[in-house]
Design a protein that fits this description.
The structure is a single chain. The chain has 337 residues and is an alpha/beta fold. The protein has twelve helices and 15 strands. It has two domains: 159 residues, NAD(P)-binding Rossmann-like Domain (Rossmann fold, 3-Layer(aba) Sandwich), CATH 3.40.50; 146 residues, Dihydrodipicolinate Reductase, domain 2, CATH 3.30.360.10. It is 26% helix and 23% strand. The chain has a seven-stranded mixed β-sheet. Strands 2-1-5-6-8-7 form a six-stranded parallel β-sheet, sandwiched between helices. A two-stranded antiparallel sheet has the order 3-4.
Length: 337
Amino acid sequence: MDGFGDIKMVTRVSIIGITGYTGLELLRVLNGHPEVTLAHVTSRQHENTPIGDVFAHLAHMEITISNPDLDVIAKDSDVVFLCLPHKTAQDTVAALYGKVKIIDLSADFRLDDVKTYEKHYNTPHNYPDLLDKAVYGLPEITGNDKIATADLIANPGCFALLSQLMLYPFAGQIQHTDIMAITGSSGSGKSASDGTHHPVRSHNMKSYNINKHRHIPEICRSAEITENQINFVPTSGPFTRGIFATAFIKTNEDVGIDGLYENAPFVRVMDNVALANIVGSNFCDLSFQRVSECEYIVQGVIDNLVKGAAGCAVQNMNLICGYDETLGLLSLSPVYP
């Protein structure tokens, strides 16, 4: 594929898998983008249904959910967003690759090693050749130029995105790090479970998959550490949106922490961070403190559905389409209070 030099007016986009929280958030973000038109929003279960009949908060939108063949979607679109569950996106990516630009929000193409993927997701990867072709869609680390020329973008996991932005300034110098990351209930997805049931979740905190979370390989790769150099404690919190994380970092030598992320429009380095300052937006707020020689505390917050998913995906779309990476995203001011 030769890129998007021939696109003169607007970018035609489709969302495959509209009914989960990520798909719905992506629709919200794209709805305010000045250079986008929606070609298809799809769901097998709700084909030919007005979206307002399925989601009452979208009753003002004149959108009908469809389920066309993938070739039709590719023909009608410049960019296709996949909001499918982990392990199920592989076949769809393979069918679309080479026909349209793809931004995959599942985990199926985030890891470039088949064995690592199969270990953490407990399923075979049927298209290992495509792992080498996927570009990891974290602009602040991967780099805008590499994303701009990609045909397949693998959007990061939400825990992984925040943790990487916290650790990346220390990459190559980390002796050990301990991270506790507290996530809201929307991170568990739309399907109800005992752990996300409101009467329990609303007044509870609990950790899960300690040192076994599937996002750990993503974190380790950019931080240039092994899994033995990190303790990662994902924790469920009593709120809906956002991730609040704290990292305790010990380095091999002192690392400068002045002027970090100055050229990253969605990373704000602050004295202190708070979820209320970023919810609803594409911002990642970080604070860096030097505790003593070679020891640091870093805290960070993101909205798991925006910067941790849909917002980052649109940031990637802007880059591959030749737009400014902030287009349609700076208008998403944090919802405060």
